[in-house]
Specification:
The chain is of the alpha/beta class and 343 residues long. Helices cover 56% and strands 11% of the residues. The chain has 2 domains: 50 residues; 286 residues, 3-Layer(aba) Sandwich (Rossmann fold), CATH 3.40.50.1110. It has 15 helices and 8 strands. It binds 2-acetamido-2-deoxy-beta-D-glucopyranose (3 copies). It is found in: Membrane.
Length: 343
């Protein structure tokens, strides 16, 4: 645990470094209506129209689109911080574990699961890029399972899981593109931000990055991991401020999962990837100004927190699909809240 004083110090350092960049980004984006707003208003109309059949959706959208409601931006900011408060139902022989938001939270903040239709309306016309290691791949799988019909999602799996390769999928009817970029090391992510995306004709609308497990296994050095994270944050901020066309992408950081050391499947993993080193790696994520709460570019998708509650891993490191389904819905609801804040 980091002391409160150290946290304040880190925060101050981050603010000094990144607030000017953040303001520049905000200034750019202010003049453009966010791409979600159009889609959401359409979906609001559709949702209201279909309300007897879609009980959750109108609630989500109305709750998040009440510009006149008192202190809506401060309450949406606090809702953002409550997104990870999911509860797990116990597994039984007949049912797998399932996640949910406590009903009170869901109703105060308007959190909701999205149906395929809602998700494709929310993401209409957008480009989602997820880059990282096998966790990132599992998040893409959750996305495909929601966006595509079950047969198409099943057909996509062998290609998605081809070892160490990139993957592209599209939902042409909605103009949605999904890219998975195999980037197990931090240097791969920095390069993606500094070179590949810098040269691309447009930036992704949603960018999810995450890595660390390979570094933990192969380098086993938390402070070097921290240096690499700082380089990623610099590259992400530079990409943001260099974009000719606002708004800048929504950026998420996919956190490290909880590791169940005795279940890890090789001697090297069991020797190197213990709780002590995991905590040291997590601390670097907290201290290197990469997260929005410290003035950095990324909103954390806290896989560690979610996976500690689930107890649903076959190998101590990768978790059942239900975890990445929760991660994806946290991301969607964060996008709705953020779109609301930016309009
Ligand atoms: C989806 O986006 C396309 C452009 O990519 C636009 O023509 C269409 O009207 C949008 N549909 C909805 C439902 O927002
Ligand atoms: C990722 O980075 C490592 C270390 O810098 C490098 O050896 C590897 O080729 C890179 N992989 C990809 C897919 O870019
Ligand atoms: C945890 O792993 C590190 C290397 O990653 C090792 O130096 C340390 O001794 C291990 N600690 C325990 C308690 O096993």
């Amino acid at each position: 645990m980091v002391s409160a004083g150290a946290q304040v110090g880190v925060f101050a350092a981050c603010v000094v470094l990144f607030v000017p960049m953040g303001l520049a980004g905000w200034h750019l984006s202010r003049n453009k209506v966010l791409f979600f707003s159009g889609a959401l208003f359409v979906s609001l109309a559709v949702g209201v129209h279909l309300s007897p059949y879609l009980p959750s959706l109108p609630h989500l959208l109305i709750a998040s689109f009440h510009p006149t409601s008192p202190s809506s931006s401060s309450s949406s900011a606090s809702c953002l911080s409550l997104l990870h408060r999911v509860t797990w139902s116990p597994a039984s022989p007949a049912t797998a574990r399932a996640w949910s938001w406590p009903p009170s939270l869901a109703s105060t903040c308007g959190f909701a699961r999205l149906t395929r239709h809602d998700a494709s309306t929310l993401l209409n016309g957008s480009w989602i890029m997820v880059a990282g290691d096998s966790q990132a791949r599992l998040l893409v799988l959750a996305l495909l399972r929601l966006l595509l019909d079950p047969a198409a999602a099943a057909a996509a799996e062998p290609d998605l899981f081809r070892r160490h390769s990139d993957y592209h999928a599209a939902v042409p009817a909605r103009g949605i593109s999904v890219d998975f970029i195999w980037a197990p090391f931090e240097a791969n992510l920095t390069r993606l931000l500094r070179e590949d995306l810098r040269l691309a004709p447009r930036a992704p609308d949603v960018l999810v990055l995450g890595s660390g497990l390979w570094h933990m296994l192969h380098a086993t050095d938390a402070s070097r991991y921290g240096d690499a994270l700082a380089a990623i944050a610099d590259a992400a901020n530079a990409l943001r401020s260099s974009l000719p066309v606002p708004p800048p992408p929504h950026m998420f950081w996919l956190g490290l999962p909880h590791l169940v050391n005795p279940m890890l499947n090789t001697d090297a993993k069991r020797a190197r990837m213990n709780d002590t080193i995991l905590q040291a790696y997590d601390r670097e994520v907290d201290e290197r100004c990469i997260l929005r709460r410290d003035g950095g570019p990324f909103l954390l998708l806290d896989v560690g927190k979610l996976t500690r509650g689930c107890e649903c891993t076959p190998d101590g490191m990768h978790y059942d699909g239900v975890v990445y389904d929760a991660v994806m819905h946290i991301m969607f609801n964060a996008l709705v809240i953020e779109s609301q804040q930016r309009i």
